[in-house]
Design brief:
alpha/beta; 12 strands; 326 residues; Cobalt-precorrin-4 Transmethylase, domain 1; flat; five-stranded parallel beta sheet; Rossmann fold
């Protein structure tokens, strides 16, 4: 007699969104820390989480990275001091220079683009509206490029309705790079209705990776019973993916950091599941979550692609120069 193998696992179709996970800016930031560790050895100091993902941060800590929130937590040192992908206010590199730190800027080039836009508008005498989320490090960094009062933060449609500029004819807007396309479009539309002379960016500030990941979620969410977004609670782009999935018609869209965080009371009876990952979530965590479902289901995986990404950003120049010298 053959051994009883128990009941067959229920079938589950897993639809992977593509693109998902790391974007070029995140790859550059993480590679900057790893390259600095390889060249100079530990410690390498990093101001703020290099990207918003606990798994990534813990992995870099284990290699010798030391994470701080402010530069005053760093002792006098010749070790590298790296600024995170989210960007920093101008006062941060100024302080680093005062203290003679070996500073390396891992700010995403697409965030730097927003900083430069804001500076140009300011030099041209325009008041600037920043569409974004209060307290997010990218927003703090962007507002910190200019003197206090030069930038007004607008988070919601209500804020856009209440905003009163000093001069409606000398007004510009920029946006956080990781926002929901739909939310931002409605705020921009209202600002343009209220202030027809408002000047926007030549090219959309919301980055290609945010756009592509949201479009992939919109394509998958209506077709599945539930969606998992792999990402950290403090990751703006991951939170926006969850919101996009809900709006696109997915009944259960949940942000999960690791397989251990899965609530099986929600995900216990499914026939289809969509999975994506925020721009700071590594693919190994997606695989970990698929494996967790494979223990309970007969999993069949397919991929739905919304765009091809071939973007690459080079490392900060001091790290490139050292690489070339080897």
């Amino acid at each position: 007699m053959s051994a009883d193998k128990g009941p067959a696992k229920p079938r589950l179709k897993v639809v992977l969104c593509s693109p998902r996970g790391f974007c070029a800016g995140v790859v550059r930031a993480i590679d900057s820390v790893e390259r600095a560790l390889a060249l100079y050895g530990p410690p390498v100091y990093v101001r703020h989480e290099i990207v918003h993902n606990r798994y990534v941060v813990d992995g870099l800590k284990a290699k010798g990275a030391v994470f701080v929130e402010e530069l005053d937590e760093i002792p006098d040192t010749t070790a590298p001091v790296i600024f995170s992908a989210h960007g920093v206010a101008k006062s941060v590199p100024e302080e680093a220079q005062r203290r003679n730190f070996f500073a390396l800027d891992a700010t995403c080039p697409l965030v730097t683009k927003v900083h430069r836009e804001a500076e140009i508008h300011y030099r041209r005498g325009r008041e600037i509206v920043l569409i974004g989320h209060a307290g997010h490090p990218e927003v703090v960094g962007t507002m910190g490029q200019l003197p206090e009062g030069a930038v007004s933060l607008v988070e919601t449609l209500e804020d856009a309705r209440a905003f009163t500029p000093r001069d409606a004819d000398r007004l510009a807007y920029v946006t956080q790079t990781t926002l929901s396309l739909d939310d931002t479009a409605s705020i921009v539309e209202l600002l343009k209705q209220r202030f027809p002379a408002i000047v926007g960016p030549h090219k959309e500030d919301i980055c290609y990776a945010t756009t592509n990941r949201q479009e992939a979620v919109k394509a998958v969410a209506p077709q599945v019973d539930a969606m998992i977004i792999v990402g950290a609670p403090n990751s703006s782009n991951s939170q926006r993916l969850r919101e996009v999935a809900e709006r696109a018609g997915c009944r259960h869209a949940v942000l999960v950091q690791r397989a251990a965080d899965i609530d099986w009371t929600i995900f216990g009876t499914l026939s289809s599941l969509g999975i994506t990952a925020g721009a700071s979530a590594p693919e190994v965590l997606v695989e970990e979550i698929i494996d967790a479902f494979a223990q309970r289901y007969a999993v069949e995986v397919e991929t739905k692609s919304a765009a091809y990404e071939g973007v690459f950003f080079p490392l900060p120049r001091p790290l490139r120069q050292n690489e070339a010298a080897e």
